[in-house]
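Q: Please design a sequence for this.
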């Protein structure tokens, strides 16, 4: 690991490489132990260098955006976390095309779309993630999803090449894409929006914002919907019907406000959340026969995993 650190510091700048950085500072759950190395590349070239060094040194690496769909274990991560969020977030608009770097926040992109009178991205305005994470997850809300607007992405492959991949080749489905299994890092994306009426776009965003405020526990740390929506049903409804509203393990709790969310009431550990998730899955299965699947990505070691 020492050699990896030396090479990374040479290839980037010392202040871009943090050691034993607590992942609780980089996830919306506010949970997670230390990453051995936390790298914040300033350019796409630096991101490429970091990946090359990791591969040459056989050091594991993992890329994150805003950490809003992530549960990192209490032991943290043994390897390099690459955060593409602080620096790589340029956005440009040309006609109906929006071109972005992977670290651009969806909320900022939605604002920019509004400024240019472009419609089609209102659905994403309240999702607290980067476009990189949103493409990987095919994030969606209120009837829209990334698949509807994505034209192509630029990726860094495991072999170190930069390639452009059309959206049609990403197998975008419900909270799914082929990106993780291909080992790609999303560097940027091109979206196709349409000309619209700024008044209507703004009103729709405001309407969706109010719906989120009314229904979601936005006052407590979480990773959004903890479970995927089972075919023809809703995770929150199944959890509520199983009598689990407010069910807790330590400081991790099934939200009182929205049973589809697990929230951190203050000092929840990753293990608390993990045990809660397993218990919810078991009890919902017992009650309804339906097996819930986590939407939240787990990173690092968990007990009994
Ligand atoms: C309050 C709240 C509300 C939410 N509402 C919604 C919602 O309505 N709809 C919805 O779909 N989601 C929702 N989410 C979940 C989350 O915001 C989305 O999944 C979001 O797209 C994740 O983006 P991120 O940048 O935070 O990704 P992260 O959590 O950092 O990463 C998610 C996954 O993507 C991978 N990844 C991230 N960036 C890259 C990259 N550049 N290249 C390759 N892989 C990458 C990571 O390795 C990880 O596997 C919500 C979360 C919260 C906390």
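A: Design:
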């Amino acid at each position: 690991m020492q050699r990896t650190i030396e090479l990374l510091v040479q290839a980037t700048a010392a202040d871009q490489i943090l050691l034993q950085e607590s992942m609780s500072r980089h996830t919306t759950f506010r949970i997670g132990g230390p990453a051995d190395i936390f790298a914040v590349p300033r350019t796409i070239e630096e991101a490429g260098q970091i990946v090359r060094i990791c591969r040459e040194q056989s050091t594991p690496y993992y890329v994150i955006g805003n950490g809003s769909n992530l549960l990192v274990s209490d032991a943290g991560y043994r390897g390099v976390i690459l955060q593409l969020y602080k620096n790589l977030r340029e956005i440009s608009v040309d006609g109906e095309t929006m071109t972005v770097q992977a670290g651009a926040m969806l909320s900022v992109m939605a604002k920019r779309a509004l400024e240019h009178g472009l419609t089609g991205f209102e659905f994403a305005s309240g999702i607290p993630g980067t476009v990189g994470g949103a493409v990987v997850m095919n994030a969606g809300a209120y009837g829209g999803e990334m698949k509807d607007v994505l034209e192509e992405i630029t990726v860094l492959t495991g072999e170190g090449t930069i390639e452009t991949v059309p959206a049609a080749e990403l197998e975008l489905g419900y909270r799914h894409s082929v990106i993780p299994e291909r080992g790609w890092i999303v560097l940027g994306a091109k979206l196709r929006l349409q000309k619209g009426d700024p008044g209507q776009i703004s009103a729709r965003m405001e309407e969706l914002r109010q719906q989120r405020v009314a229904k979601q526990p936005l006052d407590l740390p979480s990773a959004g919907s903890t479970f995927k929506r089972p075919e023809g049903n809703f995770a929150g409804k199944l959890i509520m019907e199983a009598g689990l509203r407010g069910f807790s393990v330590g400081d991790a709790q099934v939200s009182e406000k929205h049973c589809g969310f697990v929230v951190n009431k203050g000092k929840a550990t990753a293990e608390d959340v993990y045990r809660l998730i397993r218990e919810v899955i078991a009890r919902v299965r017992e009650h309804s026969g339906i097996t819930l699947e986590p939407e939240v990505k787990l990173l690092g070691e968990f007990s009994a995993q």
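Q: Thanks. Anything notable?
A: The CA atoms of residues 123 and 142 lie 6 Å apart. The pocket of flavin-adenine dinucleotide is lined by residues 28, 62-70, 84, 102, 127-130, 132-134, 136-137, 139-141, 179-180, 185-186, 216, 218, 222-224, 297 (CB under 6 Å).
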